[in-house]
Amino acid sequence: MPCQICRAPTRNALTKEQNVSCGDYFEGRRLYPEDRGALQLRECVSCGFARFDDMDRWSADEFRTRIYNADYHLCDQPFLGARPRKLAAWLTAALPPQSLVDYGGGEGMMAALLRDAGFDALSFDPFYGDSGAPVGPSPVVTAFEVVEHVPDQRALFHTLMELCAPSGIIIFSTLLKAPELKGDWWYASPRNGHVSFHSAQSLQLLTAELGLACRSLSTEMHVAARDASLLATSENWPPIAVNGAP
Ligand SMILES: [Zn+2]
Asked: Which of 78, 182, 205, 224 has the greatest number of CB atoms lying within 10 Å of its CB?
């Protein structure tokens, strides 16, 4: 299969057992011992975008059964509390209170914390919670640790753009990969539901194609807008480390 972003050929960058999680690297042990067989991570030889090719064929029900099940929290402990608290505190420091839609917000903890801080914040997650699809458009759309979970990147960014007002901004995190992987990489771990991995180049190619200007604040935090002049405000935001490193 050619690259989803730029249609160039792909190569096998690494092979990983599908029950390996990011948490394994932080804890130094297998959190899910069962061997479910290996997956290939295909990497574009041109733009560096990478994807676990078999997982992109799973249905939403297969993702619910295999990934987003009762054991999901084992592979990503910060998902439950530490990360929503850190991100809510960061957004509160970076932005004045306003309307915000958090796409892929899990159980909605970050949005709840933002409401406590005066934001009109809503959370929507295709796999968690029972809130219906949010009614856009909103001046701020957030999607933290979401991009890497989604097989179809164009569909995802179209959804984020539909939720975002024409003069709004999209703030999202995903850890960028090296243009060419050499050896193992902890973030490419299927048990977390991590499927798609952008290089700096592939992220710029995709957002530019969709008419978005995109600025990376770090290797993990990014901001995009239809109006490039809106990105300048992000230069004054405090730094944030979303994931840490194992
Ligand atoms: Zn490519």
From this structure: 224
